[in-house]
Specification:
alpha+beta; Rossmann fold; Dna Ligase, domain 1; D-amino Acid Aminotransferase, Chain A, domain 1; 3 domains; five-stranded parallel beta sheet; globular
Length: 453
């Protein structure tokens, strides 16, 4: 096991990783920008290093600054969290070149799976179903020809990244050129690469993902699914496990596909295979997230696993207890993302000062956060304030507990997603479990919190 690990992130995920390291008896070194001098993750860590000014490009995305911080503090490993450099193969190679263990997959695997066209070829070779689509297209004319062959509507997607960046749905041919230019520009700004590819839109569809853990001893453990279909602008708002859309046969087929894919590509550490599930129950691979996910606590509460702890143990060379399927799986878990955003203005970021924060308490409620009274939500970083994760014996009970948690949450100072989350939980679609990725778009007019958006 490591003695000291650098946590190359901020916010709630840095807090989460530092706590896991301390439980393993490992010292944690935090990094921070000038905007995060007094942040909770800095105070919780055993040591901290200022790595630059507030803009992420000059701090949390600065590979030289992070490597220097790890070396000067005597760290043996680096945990990237999620976002920032967590899926940057260049950062992984920089860690390897400086004798630092990267707590995640190898650079070579990350490069292969980060190339969306190559990832699709690898999945096809592993016998994993794919969404009908193309490799990278040369430009809007090629995209139009491909779209006409696939049939509208289609989705333009960035080849170099995910998270909803560089992504546009195109309903008809006349809209394709404009959508292509906007998606390519957004992709280039986010990933430094404006390449796009085209996929057929599956509608209505569910977004369901499979969590895996893979060690260096040949064990592949699949940890069940997470239902992530409640989204705005391809960004998740609510996740739950198990998915109300799957039966046992479908679940096993998806987990078996994720296991085959993990073995085929030589995956290591924690990863998530994302799928679209069509109205007929068929599933198709979307992408592999070669990192820890924001919504990982949903899986933890159902399986009893500590995914961050397992990440560190795997990176240190320790074996998983077993491969196959994680179990037993108990109850139902729901995660609610409390973001500093204004739903009535299209979920526009709403930075500001948290005047009062009192999280809900009681049985079956977990709150992952970094905020306190007086915390400033800056415009430089992600708008996530806190994650409320609820577990109970059944989906019906978990929904009622989630409603109670939202009622008890006290958060003053900035607009948040709390009210729209409560309205979603109360909706007929969510309560029935019969919703799709277009739920918010279709239900917006009926949700008061979205009025005017």
């Amino acid at each position: 096991m490591f003695n000291r690990v650098l946590v190359a992130n901020r916010g709630e995920i840095a807090v989460r990783v530092i706590r896991a390291l301390h439980e393993l008896g490992v010292e944690a070194v935090a990094v921070h920008s000038t905007a995060d001098e007094q942040a909770l993750h800095v105070r919780l860590a055993d040591n901290s290093v200022r790595i630059g000014p507030a803009p992420a490009a000059e701090s949390y995305l600065s590979v030289p600054a992070l490597i220097a911080a790890a070396e000067t503090t005597g760290c043996e490993a680096v945990h990237p969290g999620y976002g920032f450099l967590s899926e940057n193969a260049g950062f992984v190679r920089a860690c390897e070149e400086n004798d630092l263990v990267f707590i995640g997959p190898p650079a070579e695997v990350m490069e292969r799976m980060g190339d969306k066209a190559r990832a699709k070829a690898e999945m096809h070779a592993a016998g994993v179903p794919l969404v009908p689509g193309t490799n990278v297209v040369a430009g809007p004319e090629d995209a139009l020809a491909a779209a006409e062959e696939l049939g509208f509507p289609v989705l333009l997607k960035a080849a170099a990244g995910g998270g909803g960046k560089g992504m546009r749905v195109v309903i008809e041919p006349s809209a394709l050129h404009g959508a292509y230019e906007r998606a390519a520009a957004e992709a280039h700004a986010a990933f430094g690469d404006g390449s796009l590819y085209v996929e057929k839109v599956i509608a209505p569809a569910r977004h369901v993902e499979i969590q895996v853990l893979c060690d260096h001893h040949g064990n592949v453990l699949t940890c069940g699914e997470r239902e992530c279909s409640v989204q705005r602008r391809h960004q998740k708002l609510i996740e739950e496990s198990p998915s109300p859309a799957l039966d046992d046969e479908q679940r096993e087929a998806m987990e078996a596909a994720a296991e085959r894919a993990s073995r085929h590509i030589g995956y290591r550490n924690a990863g998530t295979f994302e799928f679209l599930v069509g109205p007929d129950g068929s599933f198709s691979f979307i992408e592999l997230n070669a990192r820890l996910q924001v919504e990982h606590p949903v899986t933890e509460l159902v399986t009893g696993l500590d995914l961050v702890r397992e990440q560190v143990r795997i990176a240190a060379g320790e074996p998983l207890g077993h491969g196959g399927r994680a179990g037993p799986r108990n109850g139902h878990a729901i995660e609610l993302r409390i973001n500093a955003e204004d739903p009535a203005r299209g979920f526009a970021p709403a930075p500001g000062r948290i005047e009062r924060f009192r999280p809900p308490l009681g049985p079956g409620i977990r709150v992952d956060t970094f905020v306190e009274d007086g915390t400033t939500i800056t415009p430089y970083y992600d708008s996530l304030i806190a994650k409320l994760i609820i577990v109970d014996a059944s989906r019906r009970l978990a929904i009622e507990r989630a409603r109670r948690a939202l009622r008890e949450l006290e958060l003053e100072g900035v607009p948040t997603t709390r009210e729209v989350l409560a309205e979603i939980l109360d909706s007929d679609e969510f309560r029935s479990g019969e919703y799709s990725t277009s739920f918010l778009e279709e239900a917006g007019a009926r949700l008061p919190a979205l009025a005017g958006s």
